[in-house]
Structure prediction request, 359 residues.
Amino acid sequence: MRLPAPDLQRLDRLKKYPLAAKHAPALRDFVARAQPYELRRVNPLYLAERLRWSRNETLDVLTYAVAEDLWRLHWEAYCPACGGLLQESGNLGDLHHHQVCRVCGWEGEIALDRELAVEASLSEDVRRFPPEERDNAAFRQTVQSRLGRLPALALVNRPLFRELLGAQTLPPNQSLGVERLVVFFSDLKSSTALYERLGDAQAYQLVRAHFDVIFQAVEAEGGAAVKTIGDGVMGTFFEPQAAMRGIAAALRGLEAVNQRHDLHGENRLRLKVGVHMGACIVVTLNHRLDYFGTTVNVAARLSDLSGGDEVVLSETLLTDPATRQLVASLGETRPLHTTLRGLSRPISTHRLRVGEKDR
Ligand SMILES: [Zn+2]
Prediction:
């Protein structure tokens, strides 16, 4: 049986996306030269390594490629006890929340950042392989022992993925758990007065500049700006240290905007930030994937407690000594005694004024 010739021109569909266009030639080259075992059920971290792209670049290009039917995803649940495959599907929504391992008997709920991993295969419309070259278990095993698996949350957390593929990834009536995520909310203090003082158009220019500062600072630390809410931002990070570095960079960046636009006193843009860490769920709402749960609600409430130029963070972020040390190096912290209404248990919180130590 003769296989059809590779149809690499299909990959040029990526050129219509400005973000993916510059990567399209390298990807086409890779697909043309790669061994069959490198293109089937491959860990996206391996693609990043081979193509010398950052993890986020790779995940975004892959998202466009999946949206254009050039690649497809495999969602896989692995047993946390023995590492065996529990279930796999091309649709994340098909995976059962509750799993029992047939090998070792482990039983429990699966989470997007823990048991779930994602891999990707090149579409057979682009390049077909003879059946005898389909088994790449040994190769995948080597990649996994070297690079680990890519947690499904790493892809699901990308803003581009949630926007383009979110709705088809998880049906609206389903949810999936995340065991641990850092969630932050930011808001501009007295933005109503700002609009009144400067007029809508000029105030909005500043608000836009402030969004850019936050988006860039968050992205630079591997986080994701999930959405804007009025003049505020909700975002996520996987690691507390990256979160605190990103948020501190946003506060410093906003101070630079104030100086650039000569904003003093009452006119200064002041950021209120709340950060919390814990479990949450991912659901599809308004055709996008979004995060919900107590952790998200608490983070929002903490940003309300901030007086401006200030981060209110929960004690949960400081349990790890390295994060505690990092936060101490960012500025002055003081315990904030407060109880959040509606919470069954009180949580300890701290105020952080970034850079205050050096002033
Ligand atoms: Zn097991």
In short: The domain at 170-358 is CATH 3.30.70.1230 (Alpha-Beta Plaits). The CA atoms of residues 21 and 160 lie 15 Å apart. The mean pLDDT is 92.
